[in-house]
Amino acid sequence: MLKKYLYLVALAFSFYAAQNAGLAAEETAAGVQWRASSYTCWDYLEQRQEVDEAAWDALTASEQKTMLTEGKKACAEAGKSVKLLSSSPLDGDRLLEIDSEGEADAKACFRQEGGLLSEKLRILRGINARRENGALTENDVNWLEDNDVSWAGQYKEALKIQALKPKLGEDSAKQQKKLDKFNADGTGKRLSGISSQANQGDTAAIGKFFDGGAARGEADPAGSGLAGKGLSLKPGVMATAGKTPEEQKLELMQKGKAPPLLGGKPPENPQINKAGIVYQKIEGNLYATGANKTGDMYTMAINQGNTGDCYFLASAAAIAKKDPDFIRNSITENKDGTYSVDFYREKPWYKFWGPAYTKETVTVDNQFPTNAGKPEFNNSKGTSDTGKRENMWGMVYEKAYAKFQGSYTAIGEGGWPSAAMAEITGKASTTQSSKSTSLEKIAEWEKKGYAIAAGSYKTPTNLGVVGGHAYYILGVDTVKGTVTMGNPWGFKNVTLTEAEFQANYADVYVNTIQKE
Fold this sequence. Notes:
Elements: H1 2-21, H2 43-49, H3 53-58, H4 61-83, H5 92-96, H6 100-109, H7 111-132, H8 138-146, H9 152-163, H10 165-184, H11 187-199, H12 205-209, H13 211-214, H14 245-254, E1 278-281, H15 310-322, H16 324-330, E2 331-333, E3 339-346, E4 357-364, E5 367-371, E6 374-375, H17 393-405, H18 408-411, H19 417-425, E7 430-433, H20 439-448, E8 451-456, E9 470-477, E10 482-486, E11 494-497, H21 498-504, E12 505-511
Antiparallel strand pairs: 1-5, 2-3, 3-4, 5-6, 7-12, 8-9, 8-12, 9-10, 10-11
Helix pairs in contact: 2-6, 4-6, 6-7, 8-9, 15-16, 15-19
């Protein structure tokens, strides 16, 4: 009797598991088959495949097996989505990566958990939309805190900034009036001349303009009206304030005492804080010509040098691989021998109005950082039929990005492919854990033409993978079950199984390249 009772308990448990785990019921310990009885879960087939029991019986054994395999795979992926609900805190970014298809699969495969996931996604999407539109509410922030969502602190600050928006608008109008007056009384024009003098080599010109010169017995030749305020922009660190010229200028602008320098040609070359490195003219073709034209444009142009910008170069290579024309269209060869490159600046986090990214065009020449006559940073490979250097777009792109960010030092201390790809394309990137990224998903992104990069763990398990390094997807073979990772060094690419990929890489970065 006890044996029969235990059997019935096990059987009942298996049916319960079938209802909650969908197609996994085929593998229950009690030996209950997937369609053993009328109360086995049909949710996935009915909701996602429009197949009821009658339609199922009409299928051949081969069709049933194929459909079952597809269903189990979908439910396995849905299980990963549902599992996010058990994380603490809830990762809002990861949850919003679940699309409508994934949400529907989760609801079909996991009745209770899938329904809960769908409800949280609905609320999170609404909160996210209100934040983007500057319409966050206190209830939104309270919900995030009550549900332990990772966004809570960030959105709480966003709500405070949102409340200041009217004041920011007033301040902006006041600042514009100051700038108009600054230019109207002639000070702006005089300061423009000072800027030109400084760029032409007169490094004392700016210091003389402010009372730093007056303090040394020099007059205030520009009549700036700033004398006596302890402000000096002479190059070097001030003994009184201990601030660099750049810090002093920024402080002036923030306090409304002076606008940005007007007029004057900005320095052509980004700063290099590295001994022994000098700019040297390097001529060549942006792209391959002649017999070399049939090759790809990324492996020959992307060869990282002695600076830590693998995240940017991997991003550029990933985009060039999937959409070469996008790269070509973003670089203009000017008649004077310079190059103009388009990037996109993300709006400040506190700004709730305007586009998310604004295009900025950066112009550079063909002088590149060299060490003993050789390129110090990214280098191109290949020569034309006439012996001319080719594939120089990568060198131009890196130099333009350094100028866009302020210096080679600024881009050489590491970064995130997600941000770099967005700054190249003007489209926000998505980031997800490699653990939840299958080769099938990568193949799907590849087919859609998306750019894909990945960042390795600091201590990878595979000896062929460089630690703490950005790679880009060279290719995926779902038949062999492998993915090939491109190294922006220009060598040491590595081919891995799905398990090896997930064990050696932390995150995957995806950008649609303005395709959606």
